Amino acid sequence: MSAQRAIAKVVRAIEQAEGAGARVRRSIGTRSQRNFSPFLMLDHFSTTAGFPDHPHRGQETITYLLDGVVDHEDFAGNAGTLYSGDLQFMTAGRGIIHAEMPRKHDDGRPNVGLQLWVDLPKELKYCEPRYRDLRAAEIPSVTVDDGRATIKVISGQSHGVDSVKELAYTPVWLLDFLLRPGAKVTQALPKGWNAFAYILDGNVVVGEGAQAKKAEQYDNVFFEQEGDVIHLSTEASATKEARVFVIAGTPLDQPVVQYGPFVLNSEEEVMKTFSDFQSHENGFERAKNWRSKIGDRVY
Fold it and tell me: How many CA within 13 A on the CB side of residue 162?
């Protein structure tokens, strides 16, 4: 018999300004939820501004562009463009400097998406940086509950459908649920993994029976580790579809010492990272005299 996971906590992602021209709803990486191993940060962003040249070390970032166009470029010569529905998995490893700059739209609408920061296991903190892009057309999907629910299987498994490839060093599942009125879905999750469900749009009932709880738009629902399934449903009287991202990952038994874009396991490593960054050593050699072509783009 499957056991449903209980809800541990619900955090509402409150919109805040981030830089010049960006609005962000952050539900991991705040006082309410500092981190949720292996997850360090979850931002639901809406922006017309970009993120010029900046460094990272010790983590992976996963960017899911929901609407818009974003260019990226790094000091290793990698460059590319994400379009609506595309994802980018970037492993910073021992060090990377890159720029992420959205395109301007004629109608003035912002670029909207999710960015998830995932911790790297201690033994991979200093691996070589890498990118993997996943195009919208490559993502398999499955429709269940007599057409009332459609799930994009970005990473992991759902209702007999597997994702196309492994995309992150730290094992992570990412599932994108579209729930029409009256939908009812049961999703299996790996035992012992941490998992949460972020409500992008609409209202969703999370859980069944006495454990059921209504979650609203911008709520992030965190689950207990015990149990192997979660239940998601929408009321038959709902006037709009709901969209939910279910994300799970294997917890890492290690300390997290973070200073901005540097995520290591000790204060000493963080201080060494600042030194490496400033002296262009130990992974940051290519930063010397490098500037991206897109980082100075101004609209």
Answer: 4
Structure tokens at 198: 């972020």
Q: What's the whole-model pTM score?
A: 0.95
- Which of 24-33, 45-54, 87-96 has the lowest average pLDDT? 45-54
Note whether residue 299 is domain-resident.
Answer: no
Please state the domain count of the chain: 1
Binding residue numbers: 54, 56, 98, 100
- Give CA–CA dist 247/113, Å, rounded: 15
Q: What is the pLDDT of residues 12-46, one digit of tens each?
A: 999 998 766 788 999 999 999 999 999 999 999 99
Residue 150: domain span: 7-249
Domain containing residue 147: CATH number: 2.60.120.10
Kindly report, residue by residue over 251-289, the tens digit of the pLDDT. Answer: 999 999 999 999 999 999 999 999 999 999 999 999 999
Residues that constitute the known binding site for Fe cation: 54, 56, 98, 100
